[in-house]
Design goal:
Two copies of one chain form a homodimer.
Chain A (H helix, E strand, L loop, with lengths): L1 H12 L6 H12 L5 H11 L5 H13 L3 E4 L7 E4 L7 E5 L5 E4 L2 H13 L3 E12 L1 H5 L19
Chain A binds a DNA duplex through helix 4.
Chain lengths: 159, 159
DNA sequence: TGCTTGTTGAGACTGAGTCTCAAGTAGAAA
DNA sequence: TTTCTACTTGAGACTCAGTCTCAACAAGCA
């Protein structure tokens, strides 16, 4: 709820009107850690079926432009969204078997990134850094069970 | 041509039949550094219009399974493919303005990745690490010109 | 109250990729 | 050779995620 109110403030300062539909989309989005666009559509429409799919997508795009949500292309399944507003920068580690997503910080990697771009005369704007592997449980589990996709998963935020 | 022949050998050892259509797709793919599936379809069909779109996609999937081709999700535009066979591992740095893609190697990052997964008890299988920025030329160029997409671009391979 | 502008729902549309299926082809077996 | 089987193909329908269009509606201002 706290985050919802903070985002509400932010949108106000940007002159973006927070309609009932947008508020609903935002409220549902902040409830998740990672979600896909279609999952959010389904979730929102379960609460209010009159909200159109297009409205959810439009709101997601709006929140993205406002710097509230980020889009992640994980290798498995459709793109994932995340409300990154008021959250420290982090990268992701994903279990390819169960889909668990862990957020991690590694400042030494960021330093090396700066060194790389400097080497080529680039100015760094952003990056994606994703690690794929097997979590402890999946390393010992039956490998034949079907892999899940990385949606709506619990995450650990790591300082 | 050398790479084409090497891949041909590899497919033979895997018992994969190299039909005329597949050979054409492969020959065109190795000619590129990075390409999108649709670009490859267009290119192949310019040479032989009788090759179906589905065949190009099927062959691409086949080459991917055989470990010859890798898929990259850059943030701008559709996924990029790359013939990585007999090529050293590398990550990518992309100019978001002109679409230039530079391949780089940074073993110290790889070492840190191992440290991260160890921290969480994961077994690392693969990773994606992409840096986005402005190349030297684009830092000084008119920022209003339309950004290009990262297709078919010249790359530098860095030892 | 009227005007302007922004937002919405509905649904058509798009692009990228997948699937199906009948026809064609390669290579092994007879 | 011919026959058989399994694989591969072209054509095109289909799917899925996402975008666009447009008429109706709502908010905020004068």
């Amino acid at each position: 709820m706290k985050r919802f109110i903070e985002v509400e403030q932010l949108l106000k300062t940007q002159g973006i009107r927070l309609t009932a539909q947008r508020a609903l989309v935002l409220r549902r989005a902040v409830a998740y850690l990672h979600f896909t666009a279609e999952e959010l559509v389904k979730d929102v429409r379960e609460i209010d079926a009159s909200v159109a799919r297009g409205t959810v997508y439009r709101t997601l795009a709006l929140l993205h432009r406002a710097g509230v949500v980020e889009k992640h292309d994980f290798r498995y399944g459709p793109p994932n969204y995340e409300v990154t507003f008021a959250k420290a920068h982090h990268d992701h580690l994903m279990c390819v078997q169960c889909g668990e997503i862990i957020e991690f910080q590694e400042p030494r990697v960021e330093a090396l990134q700066q060194a790389v771009v400097k080497r080529f005369g680039y100015q760094l704007l952003s990056h994606t850094h994703k690690l794929y592997g097997l979590c402890r449980a999946c390393q010992h589990a039956d490998p034949r069970r079907a892999p899940k996709h990385p949606h709506l998963h619990v995450e650990e935020v790591v300082a």
